[in-house]
Write a sequence for this structure.
């Protein structure tokens, strides 16, 4: 994937760019708003990681607003030290697709950026999700693995659906909390882990191979082969 | 520079100082009234007496007043005398 | 210096000093003087209006009466003249003089040569003949007298004067004028004194408030504005300022509290992280050890970050700015989702999570805040419950407001600690061994206060029952006490 990183802090930028390159992506970097805007508008990227506070007169919000007004729909992930709810709302309203606060774990950033690109591919309406021998029928709300029917609670169904829609990608606990339970805060307990382990009991345990894998220090991934 | 400081006292002076000018018509000695003298009293007494004589029904108070009036004037108290004579006259006039 | 110059200088200085004593125009810019002047002006205008009315009705009346009498006289004489010429006028004058009980009539009839024919003046007064009506001074037995006369030209060159003696009335008028002038003077005096008093009053009240404000900005937060109990508006102002000062004082206490707690509770994980890293730098023998130390330090720092986030969140809520984003919403699905989220954890801990949520729980507020608050309560309940217990989430809607309760059967909070439980970083004895920063209840309290409601910590016997009571929308208009 081609990713643009617009970040003025040298250390953070270096860290992010290096990490993304190691993950196999092609990364461009700009350290101020004007250059970032120029690059984003002139070259095609699959995703943009955009810092909120940028020097040079054009801050992150303005950059994004300008891009969107030009009809550019590249998915954008905001990075910001400003963590208040208002700031997140403003960032998303300006056209952002996701919002992360500093300090952040790189694994989280990577997982979310990759999830963005998947979203950006513009999938049409889907009625069925298939991963390996796992099938999910979205119309009838039924799940089958290797032909066998699996009984799921409504919440478990949604959890599995989220994992399947992000199949092959790292899904962090935060992403699951936001995506499945619409919960935007850091829970003190390991609520997600418990739910995932229950799901595993139903989806993985009765079968020879595991589909739900734990990615150390990051989260989970649904995949036919082990990552 | 001083103007500002003088505003207040000037205003006060103007407020207090304005007095109405009394124009007095006065040239020469003032005229003398003739209806409060001894002479007038006598003349009035004569008139009153003539009225009394020609009256059909002279009221008794009228003659009493006329008498008092004449006496007062004779004593030198002209003003009260004239008043009584005038009252007598008015009564006599009313009686007609 | 020559003596002439010295003298001129001295005179100049004297003049300058004299002018210094006069109030400068800057005086008019101060509010209290303006206030006082407005008062004086109003007072003066009312007094002047009253005086004018009195003058018009008394002195004016006297004049009008005189004029009316002269008019009537003239009318009569005119008729007589029309009937019988000057002879008739002469006779009428004589009769009228005889009947003049008030002794105030003035007549004068003269021939073209100014020889008197009838009347009670000894000679024609020396006045300009073209004046129609004028005042005249005559001499009579009791002295000089002022008369008001009207002048007529009769055919044949005869001239007539008809008037009234207005000396007494003039004296009356003079007395009235005197009295009113004195009254005006006294009014001006009283007005000035009153204005001064008003100005003083104004200044005193404002001075009190500004003195208090100055003392406070200098650092003395214990000062309050004095409430006199006399003036409605000023007392309201004083009370409002005092309320504001109370709130500032409380907030500053909160800040101090937090600073102290932060100093302790954040240094610990930071110190731990630092120690680990230093230890690894000095004593690590292989890369695996280093890596492990770094990962643990990172986790510690993440813990510090989450404490900061929580503190910032509490501060944001307490600042109250988010109240403008309140909307009406139904909390029932939010609570159901939370129960769903936490039931798995509860079961893992050997607990049963029961729910008793009303079908509709209408609320006016911030959805995410309520979500976070209830999540904190559930978190606590599950954390502090021993296996085999029941955690109950109940929500109902009443006429006064809504009630959300989370009850557990754990160790509970001893009564003595309940008041302090919602303070930041407070951890009771029973909680010291469990993980947590002590900010959970502080956040719930902040959310409750922002929504105009309250958090109550009650005995669940055994255990704790935390109840969030929030009023219905209508009462939300009033500012909640901080």
């Amino acid at each position: 994937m081609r990713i643009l990183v617009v970040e003025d802090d040298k250390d953070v930028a270096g860290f992010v760019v290096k990490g993304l390159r190691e993950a196999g992506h092609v990364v461009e970097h700009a350290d101020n708003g004007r250059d970032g805007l120029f690059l984003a508008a002139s070259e095609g990227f699959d995703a943009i990681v955009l810092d909120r506070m940028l020097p040079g007169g054009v801050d992150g919000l303005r950059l994004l607003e300008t891009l969107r007004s030009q009809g550019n729909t590249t998915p954008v992930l905001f990075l910001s030290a400003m963590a208040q709810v208002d700031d997140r709302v403003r960032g998303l309203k300006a056209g952002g697709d996701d919002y992360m606060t500093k300090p952040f774990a790189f694994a989280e950033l990577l997982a979310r950026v990759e999830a963005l690109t998947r979203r950006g591919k513009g999938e049409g309406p889907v009625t069925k999700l298939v991963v390996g021998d796992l099938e999910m029928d979205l119309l009838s709300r039924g799940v089958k693995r290797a032909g066998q029917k699996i009984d799921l609670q409504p919440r478990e169904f949604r959890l599995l659906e989220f994992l399947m829609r992000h199949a092959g990608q790292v899904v962090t606990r935060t992403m699951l909390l936001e995506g499945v339970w619409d919960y935007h805060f850091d829970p003190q307990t390991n609520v997600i882990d418990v739910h995932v382990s229950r799901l595993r009991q139903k989806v993985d345990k009765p079968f020879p191979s595991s589909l739900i894998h734990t990615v150390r220090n990051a989260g989970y991934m649904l995949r036919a082969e082990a990552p | 520079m001083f103007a500002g400081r003088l505003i207040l006292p000037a205003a006060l002076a103007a407020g207090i100082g304005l007095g109405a000018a009394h124009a007095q018509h006065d040239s020469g000695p003032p005229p003398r009234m003739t209806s409060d003298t001894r002479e007038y009293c006598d003349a009035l007494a004569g008139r009153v007496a003539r009225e009394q004589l020609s009256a059909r029904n002279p009221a008794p108070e009228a003659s009493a007043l006329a008498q008092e009036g004449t006496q007062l004037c004779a004593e030198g108290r002209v003003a009260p005398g004239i008043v009584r004579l005038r009252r007598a006259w008015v009564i006599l006039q009313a009686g007609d | 210096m020559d003596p002439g110059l010295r003298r001129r200088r001295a005179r100049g200085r004297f003049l300058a000093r004299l002018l210094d004593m006069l109030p400068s125009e800057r005086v008019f810019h101060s509010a209290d003087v303006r206030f006082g002047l407005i008062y004086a002006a109003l007072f003066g205008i009312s007094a002047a209006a009253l005086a004018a009315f009195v003058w018009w009705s008394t002195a004016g009346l006297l004049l009008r009466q005189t004029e009316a009498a002269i008019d009537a006289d003239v009318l009569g004489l005119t008729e007589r003249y029309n009937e019988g010429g000057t002879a008739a006028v002469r006779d009428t004058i004589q009769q009228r003089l005889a009947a003049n009980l008030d002794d105030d009539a003035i007549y004068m009839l003269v021939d073209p040569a100014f020889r008197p024919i009838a009347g009670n003046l000894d000679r024609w007064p020396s006045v300009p003949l073209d004046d129609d009506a004028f005042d005249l001074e005559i001499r009579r037995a009791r002295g000089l007298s002022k008369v008001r006369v009207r002048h007529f030209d009769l055919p044949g060159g005869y001239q007539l004067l008809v008037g009234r003696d207005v000396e007494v009335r003039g004296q009356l008028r003079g007395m009235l004028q005197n009295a009113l002038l004195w009254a005006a003077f006294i009014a001006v005096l009283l007005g000035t004194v009153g204005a001064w008093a008003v100005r003083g009053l104004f200044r005193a009240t404002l001075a009190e408030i500004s003195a208090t404000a100055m003392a406070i900005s200098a650092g003395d937060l214990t000062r309050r504005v004095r409430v006199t109990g006399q003036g409605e508006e000023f007392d309201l102002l004083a009370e409002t300022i005092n309320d504001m000062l109370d709130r500032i004082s409380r907030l500053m206490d909160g800040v101090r509290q937090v600073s102290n707690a932060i100093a302790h509770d954040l240094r610990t994980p930071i110190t731990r992280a630092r120690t680990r890293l230093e230890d690894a730098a000095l004593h690590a023998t292989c890369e695996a050890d280093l890596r492990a130390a770094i990962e643990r330090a990172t986790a510690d720092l993440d813990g510090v970050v989450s404490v900061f986030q929580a503190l910032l969140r509490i501060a944001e809520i307490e600042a109250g700015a988010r109240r403008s984003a309140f909307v009406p919403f139904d909390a029932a699905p939010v609570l159901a989702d939370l129960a769903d989220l936490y039931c798995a954890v509860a079961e893992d801990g050997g607990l049963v999570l029961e729910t008793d949520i009303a079908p509709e729980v209408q609320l006016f507020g911030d959805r995410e805040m309520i979500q976070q608050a209830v999540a904190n309560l559930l978190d606590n309940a599950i954390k502090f419950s021993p296996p085999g217990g029941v955690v109950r989430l109940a929500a109902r809607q009443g006429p006064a407001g809504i009630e959300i309760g989370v009850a557990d059967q754990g160790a509970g909070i001893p009564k003595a600690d309940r008041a302090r439980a919602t303070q930041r970083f407070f951890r009771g004895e029973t909680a010291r061994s469990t993980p947590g920063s002590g900010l959970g209840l502080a956040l719930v309290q902040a959310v409750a206060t922002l929504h105009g409601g309250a958090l109550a910590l009650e005995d669940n016997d055994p255990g704790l029952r935390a109840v969030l009571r929030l009023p219905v929308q209508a009462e939300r208009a009033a500012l909640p006490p901080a």
In short: The first helix of chain B runs from residue 3 to 17. The radius of gyration of chain B is 27 Å. Chain B has four helices and no strands.
